[in-house]
Structure formats: C-alpha cells, structure tokens
Amino acid sequence: DSGVTQTPKHLITATGQRVTLRCSPRSGDLSVYWYQQSLDQGLQFLIQYYNGEERAKGNILERFSAQQFPDLHSELNLSSLELGDSALYFCASSAEPETLAGVTGELFFGEGSRLTVL
Amino acid sequence: GEDVEQSLFLSVREGDSSVINCTYTDSSSTYLYWYKQEPGAGLQLLTYIFSNMDMKQDQRLTVLLNKKDKHLSLRIADTQTGDSAIYFCAESPLYSGGGADGLTFGKGTHLIIQP
User: Fold this and answer.
1) Greater pLDDT, B95 or A116
2) How many Å apart are CA B11 and CA B91, to the nearest integer?
3) Which residue, A41, A54, A66, B68, has fewest beta-carbon neighbours within 10 Å?
4) Among the listed residues A52, A56, A55, the one whose alpha carbon sits nearest the alpha carbon of residue A70
5) pLDDT more than 90, % of chain B
6) Which residue of A has its CA nearest to B97?
7) Which pLDDT does position A117 carry in this prediction?
8) A118 lies within 8 A of chain B by CB
9) Which residue in A109, A1, A75 sits closest to B42, CA to CA?
C-alpha cells in the first residue's frame, strides 16, 4: 500500500460527458502528480501541484484541468470526453521539498482510476 | 525533446537472469530510475542511479549505466514468478525547479516468466 488513494477505481461514461477523479496523497506529501497511462502512449505526465499551486504542466489537454485543495487532496477534471480519453489515470505524490531538485525522484503511485469512454 | 525507449516485451525462464534495457536522449539527465508495475497496481520505485555512477547493485538487482551511449539496463538475477510485471525506465533532467516534475517514463517492458 503506497498510501495514495484514488477514487473511483473504475468509471464508465459516454462521450461528451465530464468526470472528476480524486486523489488523496500520502500523509505529509505536498506534491501531487497526475499521469495518464494508455497502451499506445505509455505513461504520460499531465500536471503537478505543490502545496496548492500548479508547478509543472505536461501533455495535458485543454479539456482537462486539475486543482489541489488546502487539505492537499487533488482532483482531475476531464470534460467533453472522447473515446481516446479512455485510459488509466494515476495520481502520485512525493515528499520532495520545493527547493530540492528531485533527490530520489521517488513517486508514490495510487492504484489508478480506469476510465472507459463509450 | 526528452525520449525514453524500451522494448515492450521480454520473456525469460524462471531461474535465469533478466536484462531489461533502456535508452534515453536527454544528456542532462541527473537521475535514472527503474519502476515496477504489478498487475492492477500503481508503479513502485525499484531502484535509481545517479548519472555520475556506472553501476549500482541491490540484492538481486543490478543497474548499469553507460552515460556515453545513454543506455541504462536492469538485471534481475534468479528471476522468479513474482518478478512478472511491467518495468519502467524513467529519467529526470536537471532543471532549476524543485521536485520530480516532468519525470519522463518509457512505455514499459512486460517481463514474462516461463516456468
């Protein structure tokens, strides 16, 4: 158990809909990352938050947005869903201090939320 | 841009050594990692190596880094059925910010163990 909790584990929805994925990081971790895993694209970095602020953006579509709340949990919002958005969405957290450039790079991953768009 | 390449599949017999290879393109990579993903689970860090090291050994795991060729390998000695998983190579470039943002992963190598 990594200590990172993601809900829901599975989600089936239709094209054009909007969903919200939720992540609770490990206790004390300030950084939250979102990744998308699909068979053809592999594991793609979407976005990172540190202590409520956006820190880095990867290959995140404009239809997607995220936020990190004062209690450090994070939500990833996916809207106007398309078939190609079907994937496993991982949240990860890390204990990296803001000023330290990835000392170990250890990310603690949740078990993922599997999104199926029909 | 950054790119990390790995073979998609590797099949080995139980008890043999497994060698999973990875190439990367970012010459400023500071840290290189191996993550393991078991079925139905998230990724878990197996080991990492600093870019100024050539080798790191941790029990059955040996990581070799050829910085000149930008080639990283993970050797698993005496491969067991429990080693069956997807193994991801990842690299972290040197940048002015903090944290592990922008960690670039390969697509993962599926390690298949034959009895």
Assistant:
1) A116
2) 24
3) B68
4) A52
5) 62
6) A101
7) 97
8) no
9) A109
Q: Measured between CB atoms, which of B44, B99, B106 is closest to A48? A: B99
- Whether the CB of A59 is below 8 Å from some CB of chain B: the reply is no
Mean pLDDT by 10 residues, chain A (118 residues): 93 97 94 89 88 88 96 97 96 68 70 96
Query: Cα–Cα distance between B100 and B55 in angstroms, integer?
Result: 22
Residue A110 forms contact with B (CB below 8 Å):
yes
Q: How far apart are CA B44 and CA A90, in angstroms?
A: 12
Give the integer Cα–Cα distance in Å for A46 and A34: 5
pLDDT at res. A55: 86
Please say if the pLDDT value at position B1 is more than 90: no
Token pair recorded at residue B83: 């080693």
Q: Choose the closest CB to A90 out of B42, B106, B107.
A: B42
Residue A4's CB: how many other CB atoms inside 10 A? 22
Burial B12-37 (b: 16+ CB within 10 A, else e): beeeeebebbbbbebeebbbbbbbbb
Q: Is the dihedral of CA A31, A36, A37, A42 positive or negative?
A: negative
pLDDT at B94: 55
- B100·A110 Cβ contact <8 A: no
Residue A92, token pair as written in the block: 């990860």
